[in-house]
Each structure stands twice: as structure tokens, then as C-alpha cells.
């Protein structure tokens, strides 16, 4: 029965093939991303998310390169550590030319290098002949563009589509076109230089003769264009690469950097930081980390906020961009078809034909119950980190509207808790971070009836009101601050009475529409420590519960315990392991004084990264128990990279170090730092505190972690609490 329900879930990602079957590679820049196989091809043998996407549409659905009629042999392929460039080395298999001439494998070396820049795929193909005689060369590149909306690529069937335009051929390439039902014309321009020998409707053929010990080079550009937008000039490969490198240097200049005694740990954090920079897009309101590739490469409110919180100590500029964007898109009126209410913070916004036509509600959608309080939490944390009073003053009206939503629309029944119940028939049934249709239920597995009050959302609201109280006092409104603190205290008392389950040793997952607790042991309860709403002893008991065998599988904390009715280690939210979930829980454990628990979570997640290609943590992995010498079991449709998975390592490290930065007082403090056995030393370089810059060194000894200031420019104080 549950399988039938899942298939009927309208936003379920169909898994006709697994993204874990064969490794795919990813590039992204701005509103454009590409997914392709390790050869560099977009191959159509199996249904897959492969292709070149721009603003929610697949502009290239096929790119198959062959030498003659044969696919080349793989030597190696990789994405550069900074994610800016994809490189693959290929060679010929044993082949026979005209006149029955035999060419042994390994005679020709073909390299492909690729980058994305400003809506264009730039590729350089270079062929070198290591043979002793001149060889004829024939390369065929098969091309197509299906202009599928991203939700079609995810498996959604549409009753009607737009019109495919006639393919235009020229001497240098071809143009695919599509006129959507939204009246927008989308075109894919493919250009090859030098010009190919022959251009067909489905690709082109390159022919030449290559002397011994010589090489030949071609450059291909694939540009995504929408009419009536203004067309952009297409750069050469070298110019595009130069501009991309300069932009990346500028983007990373303000980051803090972490170096440790463990090279594998360094690889994990370096890849994570590179993934975050790849996922960050520059919007009119500042930097914004898009949630993940391929399915969520757009702004998500909750994901952007949590990623900004994870990275706040490393780079507060990300938080500023997220807050600016979400303030600009905050709902100003009620729109039930989008689950929008005045003051509510955005869940997600998408471009593309289906969003424009309203076939999906996600053009601008507000179906998140937690993004609004988390927006306030981030605002408070950003001000403390930066001391940016001018930006706070600009943001304050948006914070007030968010508070009003919490108190009014967020609690429509007056039960004293923030709840959700969708208004849009096309919207999400569940609107917390676990938003699949079956993620909230009673102990016997029955689906919950709304409006639903999730435990972690009450924790976010508690933290939000305390943060808003601090901000109100800074802006001179002491009476408002006192009122907010009283409201937070009253919420904490109600929460403890309604959610605590003594026999379970944790907080209930949620309350249903009648106020009855969903007595399910879930990782959501760990977020109550992060929000600070849990009473001290109960918080520590919850931490112990989450670290028990029914939750902790050796790699991390499962989303629900193995004893629960809906537990399934292969499910999306009911038994899997999510890195960001673990990072928030560990941060909460550390705040309650359980540094050993935080260190155990860090160790498990780090160990998982060792087995995963590129050390790139995916969105989630399966919850099967850890087996000695084996890797975590991958989840078939997990996004990779995913922003809040990439940010998890930095939050976990911060939690263990007890690192806090107060930009208003130019103070950096380490509260009883701990380091796991695999980290002898941690160096933090270029840590910004206002205009000051710090290089700090932490060394693990038998009974303590020693701290040293290696370099300091500007005024900033460093405090070490032992």
C-alpha cells in the first residue's frame, strides 16, 4: 500500500535508473548546470537526468562523441578540485582503417576539457597522434535537445507540450529550437571551430588527417538562449576560462580556510568548500547557495538559510546574500495557490515552462513552515557575527513581518504552536524539512491529520524570538524585547508539557490537529537542542537516545529509529542519514555540553566521506548499519553536490571547537574545544572579525586542546575557555 502511495505522490522523483549506477559528473555556473557521464557524454541509453540545463529547462539532451563508429576507451576523468573544469583522457581501441590497415589501441590520445560560463558550455577537444604515420581522423558528435522541463526530466508527464522548431544548420554548427506553451522561444546554439566537415540534423562530423607526433584542436560552444532576452556574444574557450578563474579567485578571497594534520580531512573540507562555491549564484540581492544538483539547483529558503548558518563563521557574506534575497521575496499578500501568507519566507522559486504556466506551484512557492523562524535566527546570528547595524536596520521590517506571521497565520487555531496545513491542492503535504508525503505519522504508522506542529519548528521559533529580542534591544525597543523573551519562555513551558515523552527518552515528532503527540522517535528531536528549547536534562537524554544503536548506524544518526513502524533504511526521510541533519544535531549536543556526542557524529560523517567519490557528501545516504571495510549504501536519486551537505563538515568542526565569533565586540572564543583522535592539529587562516584577520592554530594534547594565535592583523580578541 505504501508503494502505491509513493507512486501517487506528484513530486516523487521517479527512479527508473539510479544516479549511483555509474558515476556522473557535474558542472554549474549561475543558472546553468550540466550532468554527464565520466566520458563527458550525455548518453541516452538509459533514462537519466543527464543534460545541459538552463533556467529550469534541458537545452541539451544528447552529446555522444565517437571515433569513427566506436566509442573511445577511458583512461581517466576528473573534475578539478575547485570544480571549475572537467577533464577526460581517452584513447582509441584496436581499429581497422581503410585498406585493412590496423591501428593498435593507444595510438591516439583524445583529451576533452570543459567548463560552463554565462549560460554556455565551452569544450576543447584535442587529439594527438603517437603513431609513426599520418592517420585519417573521423570524429562524430551526435546531438539533440529535447527542451524538457526539469520536472519532466524528474519523471513528470505533461498532457501537452510546446512545438519543436525546425533545426537550423550552418557551416559551423546547428541550432535547435522550441516554442513553449509559455510563448518563450528557447534555442540551443552549437558551434564548432574549425568548422566540421559535415553538419547533419542530429550532429556533425569532424574529418582530418593527423601527422605523427602532432595534434589537432577543436573548440565547441553550446549556448542556451531564450527569446526575447538579449543575446550575448560567445567567448572563446581561453577567454571564458580566464574570466571563470578570475571570478573564482574573487569569490574565495574572503573565505576562512581550514588546514589540518589529516590530509583526507583536508580533501573533504576542500571539496565541500569548492562545491559550495559552485552552487552559489550571484543574485541582484547578493550571493545565494542553490540547494543542489540536479533536482534543486534553484534558491530554496530553508536550504539557503541552513547553509548560511553552517558557513557563517567561514564567510558571513553568504548569510547577507541569503537574508537580502529572502527579504526581497517575502510574501506581501495571501495567495492560497502558492501557500503564501503575509510575512512568510520563500520555500523555493523556479524558472521554466511548467512553473510559468502554473503546472507546478513552484514559480514562487511558500510551503515551508520553518523557513520563516529560521530567517529570524539567521538575521540574529548574522548581526552577532558581523555587527552590520546598517543592514540590520534595513532588515528589521522584514523580521517584524516574519514575527507577525508566526503569531498569527502560523498559529491559525490558537493552539500556541506554529503549525502547517497546505492550502494549495498542488502544494506539499508536509512542510518541514522532511517534506515527503509519508514523513510525519503516529506510532502505529497512521498518517497524521493537520494542522501539524513539528517539534523542531517550535525550537526554531523559540530561538527566533530570543534572537529577535536581542535585535529589538539593539535598535532601542526594550519593551518589545522583553515581550519577545516572555513569549519564548511561555513557548518553552508549553513545549515541554506537550512534546516530552518520558518513556521514549525524547520529544515527540509532532502534534496532530487535535493536539495528540506523534510518539515517534525521530532525528527532528535533535534540532530541539539546536534551537535551545529543550530543558537541560531532557536535552542530554535526547542526545543519548539519538546516539543509541537504533539511531546511530556507524556513519551518522538516522532520521527515525529502527523500531519505528515506517522505518526503512532506503526511504527518503524514514530511516536514511542526512549530513546536514547530523550537523545541526551535533551543534545542539555541543551547546548542551555533550562534546563527545558531537565528536562521535563528526567522526561518523567524516568516515562516510572517505568512501564517497571526490569526498563529496551527497544529500543523503541509506541508513543500513555500518559493515566493517564497506562503504555507506548510496541513495539512488540523491543530489550531489548538495549545499547543506557540503556545509555540514564546517558546522561539525565548529561544534567540536566551541567556536563563536562576536563581531560586535571583535571577539573570537573557543569554549572547551575538543578534537577527535584523527586530528592532531587544526589551523584556521584568514578568519575575519570586522576588519581584523586572524590565523589560529589548535593542537590536541592528551587532556586538552591548546590554542595559539599565529598571526593577527587589526584589532580582535581571542578567548580560550578550558
Task: Please give a structural write-up.
The chain is α+β, with helices and mostly antiparallel strands and 722 residues long. The chain has a domain at 2-243: Glycoside hydrolase, family 65, N-terminal domain (Beta-galactosidase, Chain A, domain 5). The protein is built from 17 helices and 32 strands. The strands form 9 sheets. It has an 8-stranded antiparallel sheet with strand order 6-7-10-11-18-15-14-13, with helices on one face. It has a 4-stranded antiparallel sheet with strand order 1-2-3-4, with no helix packed on it. Strand 27 (659-662) and strand 28 (667-671) form a beta hairpin. The termini are far apart.
Brief summary of the model shown:
The protein has 722 residues and is α+β, with helices and mostly antiparallel strands. It is 29% helix and 26% strand. The protein has a domain at 2-243: Beta-galactosidase, Chain A, domain 5, CATH 2.70.98.40.
CATH architecture of the domain at 2-243: Distorted Sandwich
CATH third-tier fold name of the domain at 2-243 = Beta-galactosidase, Chain A, domain 5
Q: Give the strand line-up of the largest sheet.
A: 6-7-10-11-18-15-14-13
The coarse silhouette is globular
Mean model confidence by pLDDT: 94
